């Protein structure tokens, strides 16, 4: 290859790089709104959903965003559960995302541990690193702890692949214990927790 051909090839690569950079900048400049939710947006949504426990909710959301950043989805719903060493948990709600719309979801799961009692709760679940809404439909495992009589508020973290789901619950009932288990998310209601 002659030196003039090498020079021409280098010039073509430089022009190609400049065009690519300009295209990327134009896409960045006209990109859609961010796909994550800020703490303020989550607190406002939670305040409308939970009502009078919003101060505790705000502190819990701030702690979750400090640990894991801004979620790219969240679920608002309700759930119920009971345990006597082994337990079951069932819930339903709506998954909210910026880019994929809203979608009804259901969850259920078993647990095992030193855990006794029952509760009903309103739940907000922050969803992190969700590549698509379909990716939510799997099992998320973790450790959960509960300690309340009549009312309570708590946060846990469940993990599957690179995704993290952080349920934040405000409930009523009487429950005490620590358990290991998982939640299985499904697009349709089912009684099968496994």
Automatic annotation (TrEMBL):
Alphabetized InterPro entries for the sequence: EipA-like
Organism in which the protein naturally occurs? Alsobacter soli
Q: Which domain of life is it from?
A: Bacteria
Pfam families from the UniProt entry: EipA (PF06577)
Signal sequence range:
1-26
Keyword terms, alphabetized: Signal
Write down what this protein is called.
DUF1134 domain-containing protein
């Amino acid at each position: 290859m002659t030196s003039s051909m090498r020079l021409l090839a280098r010039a073509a690569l430089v022009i190609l790089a400049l065009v690519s950079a300009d295209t990327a900048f134009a896409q960045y400049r006209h990109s859609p709104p961010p796909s994550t939710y800020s703490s303020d947006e989550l607190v406002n949504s939670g305040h409308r959903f939970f009502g009078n426990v919003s101060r505790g909710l705000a502190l819990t959301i701030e702690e979750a965003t400090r640990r894991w950043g801004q979620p790219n989805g969240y679920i608002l719903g309700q759930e119920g559960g009971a345990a006597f060493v082994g337990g079951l948990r069932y819930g339903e709600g709506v998954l909210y995302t910026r880019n994929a719309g809203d979608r009804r979801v259901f969850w259920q799961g078993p647990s095992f541990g030193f855990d006794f009692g029952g509760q009903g709760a309103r739940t907000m679940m922050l969803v992190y690193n969700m590549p698509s809404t379909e990716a939510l439909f799997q099992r998320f495992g973790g450790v959960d702890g509960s300690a309340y009589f009549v009312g309570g508020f708590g946060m846990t973290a469940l993990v599957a692949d690179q995704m993290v789901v952080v349920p934040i619950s405000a409930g009523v009932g009487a429950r005490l214990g620590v358990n290991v288990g998982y939640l299985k998310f499904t697009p349709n209601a089912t009684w099968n927790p496994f």
